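Hi, here's the filled form for the chain we discussed.

Project: internal
Contact: R.S.
Residues: 535
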Amino acid sequence: MSPEKVPMDPMQAILRLQEKLVDLNERTVLAAAEQIKASQIHLNGLYRYFFEFMAPFWVALNSFLATERIKLGECAPEETARDYLELFRFNLQIAKQGLESALRSANRYHAREWERAFAAMLNTWTGAKGGDILDYSERKAKILEELVYNYSRAIRDIAPEFGFHFDDGGYELAAETDRFLLYRVFPTDPSVKTREKGKPIVIIPPYVLGANILAFLPGEGKSYTHAFANRGIPTYIRIMKDVDATPALQVMTGEDDARDTRHFCETVVKRHGRQATLNGFCQGGFISVLNILSGELDGLVDALITCVAPMDGTESEALVAYLEHIPPRFRDLGYALKTLPDGNEVVDGTVMSWVYKLKSMDRESPIFTFYRDLMMFDRPDNRDTKITKTAAALNHWLVYDRNDLPRAITQLSFDSYTIPVAPDGTLPVKLFGRTLNFKRIRENNIPWLLCYAAEDDLVNREAALAPLKYIDVEVTEFPKGHGGIATSWSHPESECALHKVFGDGCRGPVRFQLDLDAAPDDPSRPENPVRKKKR
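And the returned structure, exactly as it came back:
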């Protein structure tokens, strides 16, 4: 039999109740202090996200006003009034998209927080198991502090590990022109020896967001460029000089790009005794195709790899729809130009980033992105979210790696997004006055691996796969978004590693290059030894 319960002395009960009330009062006061702290950080975070979003707007506004001062004198008043009304309506549509996405994200977050706060209050007053109001308040303040303060610091601090650092001994300057530098990339794995007579590869990065995404985190084994070098492949990357300090780059044309690429390929072929593979990433892929189609690389390049490259911008439904809503008067690169101290005009990379933000307003509005990042840190299982190097490096790329562009190079891309490829495969742009047609790839028997990302919201599937309408191209689909090939899949142990065959027989770029290296390197061979795949 269990012993009978001894009744509690009334005085003890009163003292225990008093202690409980004192503890409850103390925790409530501390919780209130944490809530005040969390509210301050919350407002600071919203302000910072809004300021970072709006910063490009002021640059874009200056460019807009400078161009309009000229056009106002060239257009009739009634035409100007009509165009401005159309532009105002377009701005309202963009604002509506941003507001709707902001309200949805804020409602989703705060509805969850009200539920958590109510549960914490019940636990506090009833003594039930689970976090009380102080636990809830401390965690909320900690998560906000992690996002608003520590996350920004981690993004800045990742700089020494992110991207190319050409002074660290892992690279060699192989050639130079007035506009570009060509670096040889050595393996990060000391056990790998480069095959000097192997088939070399020359990588062409995008213009606007630079080359560093292709050396994402070499120390973590995540680097698109080093994925080739670490397999013994002679690897080279073309680096654009500082546009602000290089007048020749500021005024360069597509023809200049082709000539410089030819010079670099001549250097590589002379060193290794074999024709090179040209590998363009994003906009660099489009430029690489133009260079090959121009005939300037004949006898120097006999294989092509493109990754997430827009081959026919008019197939990009989201961007085309965005451009169609803009009155024709404002579809002018002049609104993105800025004049440098030497008098040359370049396309402002900040303005170009602003255009992308407006196009994707439902995912880029400051309130939406703030709550999206906040919910990323505030995991449902209440576990602490660690700021990973991958997340920090990706945001460092998006925030800090933004270049101004030569006007003529931007015009090539602009034309490809506003003028479709002709039914016979002829592109809407020319180099050296020559017509460029996708079919020249087939005529020259150049194997082409075309890689795209399944969830790419910058270069969609149709824009990337446009050449398949005209020629047979080997296609590899990678999961995730635009940067996934250079970030997630550049790691050698990832599911879709670049040196593997994965999915429905898809070859990664490194696997493709290794197979080319093993194939007979005879330019006169009657048929392409590389397996082709239609999609």
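Let me know if anything looks off before we file it.
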